[in-house]
């Protein structure tokens, strides 16, 4: 024992005596000074949780990142800095901060980062959703405004909407014959997919098998492509955050994205071929017709075939899941809150009566129905995170320095569900949107279900009309109730994170007719 101690002390003395000791001390001192100096003069980053080496703050995201981040904001505030693997990120969780990045600094934050989905699935970002700021982005946005989502074009699809909703109601009422419950979420998925594809491609494609490049039939039906895509795109692709692991393709996401792109490509190639062979009557063009016949812009630019395909992928994937989710959550809330359902139906009876179907022209006179849908876009928020953005230059937010190339997450869910900005946020209360003394103003950025700034959802008007029209007809034509033994509080409002929030359990309802029988007969609804 004494021997060992002596030995150690001896070594210590040796070290103490050597000039290496002095050099070592000097080096450590210098390092401390440099770090301190950088702290003083380097970028002053926003606060945020401790970042682990290599993985950074990835563990803080958890499986429900929209809620984890909302929880973290209580400690670190509405502007938070995180390191997601190798990606420097800021997280925005208040209306004031949202206004800063979506309006005041929109020119800095309107670009999108390069991700594996953008690179692999969208042919190196030749679509709108993933396009960086540049000429293609401008051309595609202009196409949305001038050719695809014009009021006239939206009006043109009124017949499709009407047909689809009527068919849905017929199917629902038939399934519920004899008081049997129907599973609404599954029914919505089918119907929506088909009818959106009708607007885009002029045909329903449900049940259609995709083909392989050699023409043989693939096992996957076309509607599975959007579902699988949403799973991959809504999850974490490891290679995006830890690029050195990308070659391993953990989970096989990249390989799956490639396969899905190929299957989608074969499908779109045949759709485009079919459309090239025909000349649609004016006023009956679908989106493919419109995109194929776009005139060149001032500089003579036209969309290439790859760009048309990627854009159609966007519109298909951006439109189906969001619209289904947008119809599902208001319906679920109305099943949880029979008192509001009753009020919506009373409004319909007063404005429309029971002797004819609701028409889209009735919607402006149905404020309570519309407020109900608005409130259901708040809680829960169908699209919890706005699509990711990236800064084009270094900037300052709230006095903090944000370097160029920083990723931006706007947690719309948090903004919609924080008690700082909404009174009793967990309460479902459509009247929030009807209070003339305290209106929810667009320029306050406390209500952003469709995003904001130059990246705001181009499908907003079209989607809102669709959802309103759907729910107006459904609630007008059908009385809804829960399966026996279930009370409203039993309706599970649990949601799991993804590009859109998905319900964790199925919604089962029983529908019965509530209008005069002649109305169903005239509308061609077989009971
Ligand atoms: C209830 C339905 C919908 C909701 C809640 C919704 C929500 C959103 C949100 C939050 C964004 C991101 C905005 C941002 O980054 O600030 C977005 C972008 C987008 N949406 Fe929608 N959307 C819906 C329906 C649709 C439909 C029906 C279409 C087209 C058929 C569509 C096409 C797009 C496209 C192409 C973008 C990307 C725009 C860009 O990056 O410039 N959306 N949507
Ligand atoms: C968020 O905080 C609440 C209450 O403090 C807690 O019950 C919940 O588990 C937290 N959720 C997540 C995902 O961190
Ligand atoms: C217009 C249109 O395509 N309607 C379809 C909507 O979805 C239902 C349910 O799948 C189909 O039966 C309709 O043909």
From TrEMBL:
Transmembrane segments: 20-37
UniProt cofactor(s): heme
Superkingdom, natural source: Eukaryota
Binding site for heme: 457
Gene Ontology biological-process entries: secondary metabolite biosynthetic process
UniProt keyword list: Heme, Iron, Membrane, Metal-binding, Monooxygenase, Oxidoreductase, Transmembrane, Transmembrane helix
Pfam family, one: p450
GO molecular function (one): metal ion binding
Family per record: Belongs to the cytochrome P450 family.
UniProt cross-references to PANTHER family, sorted A to Z: CYTOCHROME P450 98A9, OS09G0441700 PROTEIN
Protein name, UniProt field: Cytochrome P450
Source organism per UniProt: Riccia sorocarpa
Organism ancestry: Eukaryota, Viridiplantae, Streptophyta, Embryophyta, Marchantiophyta
